[in-house]
Amino acid sequence: MHLVLLFTVAALLGSCQSAHLNKHIKLLSDIDNSIENGVQAKSDGSHKYLSITQGPLPSYAHTPGTTIELTCEAAGSPAPSVHWFKNDSPVYEYDVESNELIDSSPTSIARISSTLIVTRTTSQDVYTCLATTSSKTARASTVVYNTDSATELSERAKLFPLKPRIVVSYSTYVDNIGNRVVLPCRVKGHPKPKITWFNGQNVPIEKNPRMKVLRSGELVISSLLWSDMDEYTCQAENAFGSEKAKTFVYPAKPE
């Protein structure tokens, strides 16, 4: 068992409210269950793994003018990323100006969730979730059927979604103290949602000089400290509503 993750509990007892403790234990244990027994109890990057913990359903029926959400969750080390394909062609979900490419730390461990919002289908489309790390890949596919012969989008459908929807985020992130940390928060919405990050005390992170939010919504921690262990919240908001996603960050002892 990867002891560095489970030993977190002892530290959490002194720093987190009991209402949050069981959730953090489960998140860390879920990642730990994907790792083989007998590995070193430090985040040294020597044990690399990847698994899709939840994929989309085998098939979906899509009615024109509505949306379908396809969700894929993966856990791995280094921290994985998720890419979507439609009929073997990449689906580009983000504006070029927001598409800031960031390499994962080789010692990181994370659980990621990615949601693809489908607004249009032909008679039958195959969507594939491809999870990747620096050395491994895993995939899961689904078939989306069109329930109507019409394929043209209505004006209303072109504006979906209105309320913000966070489509990419980590639920848990572990990395060595001293490393640069990047926590994703990719959002869909119309008009474009405003993104704000908060720490566990509900204080905006802009008050911390070591932290900043990129144009694409990611939170960057310049050099991870033990005191950074916390549950961070990404809030996306526009005139039609708001949505939040939480990421628990655990600073590990380096090799």
TrEMBL record:
Residues 1-18 form the signal peptide. Keywords: Disulfide bond, Immunoglobulin domain, Repeat, Secreted, Signal. Residues 65-145, 164-249 form the Ig-like domain. It comes from the Eukaryota. InterPro entries: Ig-like_dom, Ig-like_dom_sf, Ig-like_fold, Ig_I-set, Ig_sub, Ig_sub2, Neural/epithelial_adhesion. It is found in: Secreted. One of its GO terms (cellular component) is extracellular region. The keyword Protein biosynthesis does not apply. Pfam families: I-set, Ig_3. This is Neural/ectodermal development factor IMP-L2-like. It comes from Bombyx mandarina (Wild silk moth). The gene is LOC114249647.
